[in-house]
C-alpha cells in the first residue's frame, strides 16, 4: 500500500466531540458544494461559507481542497468497507440465497445511505487518489467476500476469479446507476432484484448446487 501524498494529508484529526461535529459539518458542506458547483468550482472558501465556519477553522484540519476531498472520500470508503464486512459476517455459513442477499443489500444500502456523497465522489479526478483509495476498499471487500464464500467452499482461493466476479457485479451496476440521473426508488428496487438473481445463479454454480451449462457454438457465426 503506497503512502498518501503529503498534499492529500489532513493536518490533524479531531479529538473532542465539538471538533468532531465541526468536521462532520465541513464534510457535509463539501458534498453539497461539490454537487452544486462541481469539482472545478469547489473552493475551501465556498465550503467554509456553506458550513458556517471560518476558512481558518477549515485550514486547521485541511491545508487545501485536495486534502479535504481525499478525507471525505476516505471516510465514505471506510463506510462501504465496514458495511460489506458486516454483511459477509452475517452471510457466513448461510444458504446461497442469503449470501447473495447479504452481498447486494450490504453494498447497495451503504452506497444509497449516502447517495449524494456517492454521486459526488464519482466526479473527483484520479489525481486525488480516487482510484487508489477505491482499490484499497475493493481489496478489503474482496477479503470479506472470500471469507464468507470459503465458509461454504473451503478450497476457494483468496485471489480467485470468483471473488473478482462478485465484486465487479456489485460495483459496476451501482456506479452506472449513480453517475446518471439521480436514481429513482423504482430503479433502485429493480436493480436490487436483478443483482440478487444474478449473484444467486452465479454462487449456486460456484458452490456446486447446479451444474455448469455447456457452451454452445452457433454454426452460423
How would you describe what is shown here?
With 221 residues, the chain is mainly alpha-helical. The protein folds into 2 domains: 7-120, Tetracycline Repressor, domain 2 (Orthogonal Bundle), CATH 1.10.357; 129-206. Helix content is 67%, strand content 0%. The chain contains 9 helices and no strands. It has helices at residues 17-37, 44-51, 55-59, 65-91, 96-113, 115-121, 130-150, 161-179, 185-206. Helix 1 (17-37) crosses helix 6 (115-121), helix 4 (65-91) packs antiparallel against helix 5 (96-113) and helix 4 runs parallel beside helix 7 (130-150). The radius of gyration is 20 Å and the shape is elongated. The termini are far apart. The mean pLDDT is 86.
Low-confidence stretches: none
**Oligomerization state:** single chain
Helix percent band: 55-70%
String of helices and strands: HHHHHHHHH
- CATH homology superfamily of the largest domain: Tetracycline Repressor, domain 2
Tell me the number of strands: 0
Distance between the termini: 46 Å
Number of structural units classed as domains: 2
The shape is: elongated
Our estimate of the beta-strand percent is under 5%
Level-1 CATH class name of the largest domain: Mainly Alpha
Might you state the CATH topology name of the largest domain?
A: Tetracycline Repressor, domain 2
Secondary structure category: mainly alpha
Mean pLDDT: 86
Amino acid at each position: 500500500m503506497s503512502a498518501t501524498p503529503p498534499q492529500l494529508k489532513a493536518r490533524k484529526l479531531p479529538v473532542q466531540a465539538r471538533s468532531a461535529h465541526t468536521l462532520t459539518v465541513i464534510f457535509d458542506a463539501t458534498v453539497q458544494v461539490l454537487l452544486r458547483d462541481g469539482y472545478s468550482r469547489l473552493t475551501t472558501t465556498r465550503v467554509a461559507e456553506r458550513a458556517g465556519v471560518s476558512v481558518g477553522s477549515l485550514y486547521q484540519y485541511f491545508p487545501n481542497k485536495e486534502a479535504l476531498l481525499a478525507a471525505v472520500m476516505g471516510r465514505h470508503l471506510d463506510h462501504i468497507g465496514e458495511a460489506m464486512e458486516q454483511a459477509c459476517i452475517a452471510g457466513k455459513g448461510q444458504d446461497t440465497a442469503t449470501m447473495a442477499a447479504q452481498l447486494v443489500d450490504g453494498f447497495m444500502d451503504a452506497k444509497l445511505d449516502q447517495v449524494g456523497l456517492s454521486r459526488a465522489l464519482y466526479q473527483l479526478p484520479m489525481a486525488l487518489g480516487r482510484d487508489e483509495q477505491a482499490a484499497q476498499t475493493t481489496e478489503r471487500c474482496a477479503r470479506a467476500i472470500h471469507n464468507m464464500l470459503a465458509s461454504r467452499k473451503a478450497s476457494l482461493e483468496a485471489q480467485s476469479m470468483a471473488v473478482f466476479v462478485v465484486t465487479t457485479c456489485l460495483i459496476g451496476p451501482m456506479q452506472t446507476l449513480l453517475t446518471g440521473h439521480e436514481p429513482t426508488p423504482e430503479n433502485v428496487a429493480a436493480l436490487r432484484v436483478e443483482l440478487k438473481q444474478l449473484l444467486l445463479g452465479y454462487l449456486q454454480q460456484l458452490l456446486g448446487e447446479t451444474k455448469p451449462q455447456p457452451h454452445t457454438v452457433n454454426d452460423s457465426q
